[in-house]
Amino acid sequence: MAHDLANVLGDVGPLLFYLAVWGLVFAGTALFVGVFIPFITGDSLLFAAGLLTGTHPELSIWVLAIGVGIAAVLGDQVGFWLGRRFGRPYLTRRGGRWVQAGVRRAERFYELFGWWSVVISRYIPWGRVFIPPIAGISAMRYWRFLTANIVGALSWGVLITVIGYFAAVNPSVRPVAYIVAGVVIAASIVAGIRAWVLDRRSRRREGA
After folding, report:
1. I need a labelling partner for 163 at 20 to 30 A (CA). Which of 1, 15, 45, 176 fits?
2. What does each C-alpha distance from 151 to 33, 85, 178 come to in angstroms?
3. Where are the alpha helices (DSSP H) in 87-141?
4. In this predicted model, what pLDDT tens digit does every residue of 67-122 receive, in sequence order?
5. Distance, CA of 159 to CA of 69 (rounded, Å)
6. What is the pLDDT of residue 88?
7. Which of 178-182's residues contact partners 24+ apart within 8 Å by CB, and which partners?
8. Are 57 and 113 contacting, i.e. CB atoms less than 8 angstroms apart?
9. Residue 148's closest CA among 80, 82, 88, 194?
10. Three-state SS for 93?
11. Which positions ≥6 away from 174 have C-beta within 8 Å?
12. Which of 207, 164, 179 is nearest to 43 (CA)?
């Protein structure tokens, strides 16, 4: 992906490069694009963009990372508003058995973790798409959602982008940067597995 982004940068220049990355992050949650292309709107995009910024002096890591954080926050805000405005039918109309399975999984995840689900979901591809509208549907208080949204979006978006940058510019911290990136990705996998395990336990108790 870093190679593809380098081609984009060469074709359009720094400003449009920033806008392309921010637009993908925003669309990943606000427009449900992340349901179909999670890797192009998620962790891989951010890490690759950070790597590229570290090797192209015309790019600023702070402009990129801060913009990513803002785009992530705004994307979740749109998802929350759509869920609150249109309710459960908004998600039902998304269609597709796979999509509806993700919706049900996210609903259970939200029930189990509440405020933390908004933070943790940033690290789970299906979670960051479905949790914001479900929080809106569930009438989560706006300011409560906003705080969780900011914490999750900044810790995810800014952190992964900056890790990619340092992996490129500083050979001495490169191994550490890759380890941290691996831990972040592993944590997202563990969070997803934990949500699945808790969901199964909850269903068994309900069926007992």
Report:
1. 15
2. 22, 24, 22
3. 88-92, 97-113, 115-120, 125-137
4. 999 999 999 999 999 988 887 877 877 767 767 777 887 888 888 888 888 888 88
5. 9
6. 80
7. 181/47
8. no
9. 80
10. coil
11. 166, 167, 168
12. 164
Tell me the torsion sign for CA atoms 51, 55, 59, 62: positive
Distance CA 61, CA 128 (A): 23
Q: Count of residues for the chain? A: 208
How far is it, in rounded angstroms, from Cα 55 to Cα 48?
11
Say what the pLDDT of residue 64 is.
Answer: 94
Q: CA 201, CA 1: separation in Å to the nearest integer?
A: 38
Burial class (CB in 10 A: 0-12, 13-18, 19+), 111: middle
Below-70 pLDDT ranges, the chain: 1-3, 34-39, 95, 98, 173, 177, 180-182, 184-208
SS3 124: coil
Residue 86, token pair as written in the block: 């249109």
Which of 136, 150, 115, 121 shows the shortest CA–CA distance to 38? 121
171: three-class secondary structure by DSSP: coil
Please state, in angstroms and rounded to a whole number, the distance separating the CA atoms of residues 132 and 147: 12
pTM above 0.70, yes or no: yes
Measured between alpha carbons, how far is 101 from 164 in angstroms, rounded to an integer? Answer: 32
